[in-house]
């Protein structure tokens, strides 16, 4: 889509010029998805138009462990709203709520992002470290990560790990 | 003429095309079978070896097919050095007529020459032959380890319209509009092919991939057409999956999918994503289906000019595409033979080309496959 995506690229290039210390490159979205699947470690920050961003974010979320662990934030000129990074697909299903199996990690990490945005880096770090420790330990995980813990158990574990 | 009618005419072409009903599409399949019926008379197929590594891998295919006793005679065509005014491209009218006549072809990688005043080669093929569906089977190759072992799916991508209709314009400086066109005719056509493919290949489920929650009219129309066709195949499970969910599910658990049918852009992205799951474009076969039973199988990787002529290229993609072509021609026995030979050779691991982590040359790899036949 030469004109539309062309305009997007032109704009990115203009901004890239102002940050010479940051490497900038461009990749076609289908090749990008293929690379993500094969070698995701080659990517750092990815900026995309709307639809591609949806797809790429979900692909990346899948690689990273699913909607249950990926944090996200929406940023505007005056406000910022933080929420899970990838579409849940289970939104609005009461059954999931009752089962108490939802993974709180994504939202916890999103709130850490919010803390960072509010310039509270030490709080953000503490929260993130606790969450990561709980996951790394592997003892307390919800169903989507292959465990049997409930939402509350994971939250309690994170609180216990906070220092 | 109204603008909508003009648009439709530009996309569909001046030929009058009828919306395929179940009878006529299965009719197309049986007429293809009847036309190619006799296994004693060789079938003529057009071969485009292509550029770069194309000629070498095309040689591989010819060798394997001859060893397997496949009754095919190749009519070779090359990309020209001058623009043919009848096609506005480096692909000559004769080449295209050859495919139209033979109804079946195999294409290697073609490097589109840089410059203006001509259409890209792929675009020329697609438009002139009315190739409306791009079919890519993706399955884990035993012996070639990736992060995913249980992939076995087929992506069927609508290839004529959608976001790639080429209709973009600048509204004012800094504001560009791009039109996404979805027609009932094209959607029905690709859905029909998807279900027919599922039925003839014994697949159980067809998933339509869409973003109809946002693009309610375009993807909505696509889904409507898929649903209509689904009703005619009650034995096949039909489901609809939102594209972002689909990406995530593919990456987390690709075994969930069987046959996927999608409009153009999603198909482009998903088919490449799936190729990445099983090892990349170097191993991916593909077949383009056109009206009147035309099938052009092709290797979708690039022409790799850096290794051209060095006997290092991996012919797997072109070979597997050739197998797809054989299945289309209902030469299933030989297709299965060659397919097994390729799988076994790669699984064995003794003869592998450099891109698969081995050190065999193209000719050694080809010979190993022939020995496995």
Topology diagram in text:
The complex is a heterodimer of chains A (about 160) and B (about 375).
Chain A: H1 4-17, H2 29-38, H3 50-64, E1 71-75, E2 80-84, H4 94-99, H5 105-117, H6 121-137, H7 151-161
Antiparallel strand pairs in A: 1-2
Helix pairs in contact in A: 2-3, 5-6, 6-7
Chain B: H1 3-12, H2 22-35, E1 43-48, H3 54-67, E2 72-76, H4 93-102, E3 104-107, H5 121-128, E4 131-139, E5 152-158, E6 168-172, E7 175-178, H6 184-200, E8 205-210, H7 218-231, E9 237-242, H8 243-252, E10 259-262, H9 264-278, E11 287-290, E12 295-298, H10 316-328, H11 332-348, H12 362-372
Parallel strand pairs in B: 1-2, 1-3, 3-12, 5-10, 8-9, 8-10
Antiparallel strand pairs in B: 4-5, 4-11, 6-7, 11-12
Helix pairs in contact in B: 3-10, 3-12, 6-7, 8-9, 10-11, 11-12
Note down, in words, how this protein is organized.
The complex is a heterodimer of chains A (163) and B (373). The longest helix of chain A has 17 residues, at 121-137. Chain A is globular, with a radius of gyration of 18 Å. In chain A, helix 2 (29-38) packs parallel to helix 3 (50-64) and helix 6 (121-137) packs across helix 7 (151-161). With 163 residues, chain A is mostly helical. Helix content of chain A is 53%, strand content 6%. Chain B is an alpha/beta fold and 373 residues long. Chain B is built from twelve helices and twelve strands. Chain B has helices spanning 3-12, 22-35, 54-67, 93-102, 121-128, 184-200, 218-231, 243-252, 264-278, 316-328, 332-348, 362-372; strands at residues 43-48, 72-76, 104-107, 131-139, 152-158, 168-172, 175-178, 205-210, 237-242, 259-262, 287-290, 295-298. Chain B has a ten-stranded mixed β-sheet, sandwiched between helices. Chain B has a two-stranded antiparallel ribbon with strand order 6-7. Chain A binds chain B through residues 1-4, 6-7, 29-31, 33-38, 51-52, 54-55, 57-59, 61-63, 66-67, 86-87, 89, and chain B through 146-147, 163-164, 168-170, 174, 176-178, 211, 242-245, 247-252, 265, 268-273, 275-277, 280-281. Chain A: It comes from Camelina sativa. Chain A: Residues 1-158 form the Isopropylmalate dehydrogenase-like domain. Chain A: This is Isocitrate dehydrogenase [NAD] regulatory subunit 1, mitochondrial. Chain A: Belongs to the isocitrate and isopropylmalate dehydrogenases family. Chain A: InterPro entries: IsoPropMal-DH-like_dom. Chain B: Residues 44-369 form the Isopropylmalate dehydrogenase-like domain.
């Amino acid at each position: 889509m030469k004109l539309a995506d062309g305009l997007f690229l032109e704009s990115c290039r203009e901004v890239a010029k102002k940050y010479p210390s940051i490497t900038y490159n461009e990749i076609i979205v289908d090749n990008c998805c293929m690379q993500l699947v094969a070698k995701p470690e080659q990517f750092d920050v990815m900026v995309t138009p709307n639809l591609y961003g949806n797809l790429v974010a979900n692909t990346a979320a899948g690689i990273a462990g699913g909607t249950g662990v990926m944090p996200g934030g929406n940023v505007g000129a005056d406000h910022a709203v933080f929420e899970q990074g990838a579409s849940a697909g289970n939104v609005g299903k009461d059954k999931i709520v009752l089962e108490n199996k939802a993974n709180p990690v994504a939202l916890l990490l999103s709130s850490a992002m919010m803390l960072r945005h509010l310039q509270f880096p030490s709080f953000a770090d503490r929260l993130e470290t606790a969450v990561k420790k709980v996951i790394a330990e592997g003892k307390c995980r919800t169903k989507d990560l292959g465990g049997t813990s409930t939402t509350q158990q994971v939250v309690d574990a994170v609180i216990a790990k906070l220092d | 003429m109204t603008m909508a009618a003009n648009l439709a005419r530009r996309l569909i072409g001046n030929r009058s095309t009828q919306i395929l009903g179940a009878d006529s599409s299965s009719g197309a399949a049986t007429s293809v079978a009847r036309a190619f019926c006799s296994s004693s008379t060789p079938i003529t197929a057009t071969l485009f070896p292509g550029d770069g590594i194309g000629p070498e891998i095309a040689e591989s295919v010819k060798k394997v097919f001859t060893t397997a006793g496949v009754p095919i005679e190749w009519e070779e065509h090359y990309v020209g050095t001058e623009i043919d005014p009848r096609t506005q491209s480096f692909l000559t009218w004769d080449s295209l007529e050859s495919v139209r006549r033979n109804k079946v072809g195999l294409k290697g990688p073609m490097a589109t020459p840089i410059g203006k005043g001509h259409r890209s080669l792929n675009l020329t093929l697609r438009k002139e032959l009315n190739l409306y569906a791009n079919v890519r089977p993706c399955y884990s190759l035993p012996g070639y380890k990736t992060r995913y072992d249980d992939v076995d799916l087929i992506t069927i991508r609508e290839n004529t319209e959608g976001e790639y209709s080429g209709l973009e314009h600048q509204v004012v400086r800094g504001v560009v509009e791009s039109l996404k066109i979805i027609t009932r005719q094209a959607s029905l056509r690709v859905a029909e092919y998807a279900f027919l493919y599922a039925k003839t290949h014994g697949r159980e489920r067809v998933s339509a991939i869409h973003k109809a929650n946002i693009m309610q009219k375009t993807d909505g129309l696509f889904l409507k057409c898929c649903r209509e066709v689904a009703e005619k195949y009650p034995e096949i499970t039909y489901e609809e999956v939102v594209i972002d969910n689909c990406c995530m599910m593919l990456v987390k658990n690709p075994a969930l999918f069987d046959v996927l049918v999608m409009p153009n852009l999603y198909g482009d992205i998903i088919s490449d994503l799936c190729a990445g799951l099983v090892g990349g474009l170097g191993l991916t076969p593909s077949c383009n289906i056109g009206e009147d039973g035309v099938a052009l199988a092709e290797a979708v990787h690039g022409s790799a000019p850096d290794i051209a002529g060095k006997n290092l290229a991996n012919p797997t993609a072109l070979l597997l595409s050739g197998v797809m072509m054989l299945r289309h021609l209902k030469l299933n026995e030989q297709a299965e033979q060659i397919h097994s030979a390729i799988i076994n050779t790669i699984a064995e691991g003794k003869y592998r080309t450099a891109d698969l982590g081995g050190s065999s040359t193209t000719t050694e790899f080809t010979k190993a496959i022939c020995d496995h036949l």
